[in-house]
């Protein structure tokens, strides 16, 4: 994953080397060196972003095993040429229903779960619209690699109910979108979902 910022990319590469070394290294002295490298990478990220050390350790140094990207899903749900968006409770903006993929779920299963939890809709994913590298499309740039899976979904039933994450769910036309949660979905990504919904021959976009 490249962020476009050399300092951040160096920190990410050091963290990846350290994490992989801790996974596969057996010599106790080598493991100590990998821990030192990981600490340096964390301090570089703190210096660059100003994030508190607890957050850096959780998001940047909290993983184990071979370094791989995280994945999230987003559900594109349409009705009368309008797209369903949910109002995020914490950030006071709107997004496609979705979130981090659970470890025990496939991306399809996670899309169904997140759509139900955030929008109250029971859905069936029918098409993978896109699999995108988040840092190539969304802001702010993050040190963690994230892949975003957008699914076109068919509604089987259900309606919105307030929950711990979202406070509202409404359908919007493309020319009347509300304030979007740009780190979750951009106007370009919403437009991409519109185009996929109208094209029976849509080919999955991927980075």
TrEMBL record:
Its cofactor is Mg(2+). Residues 68-194 form the Nudix hydrolase domain. It comes from the Bacteria. Transmembrane segments: none annotated. One of its GO terms (molecular function) is hydrolase activity. Keywords: Hydrolase. InterPro entries: NUDIX_hydrolase-like_dom_sf, NUDIX_hydrolase_dom, UDP-X_N. PROSITE patterns: NUDIX (PS51462). The keyword Hydrolase applies. The keyword Lipoprotein does not apply. This is NUDIX family hydrolase. It comes from Lactobacillus helveticus CIRM-BIA 953. The lineage of its organism: Bacteria, Bacillati, Bacillota, Bacilli, Lactobacillales.
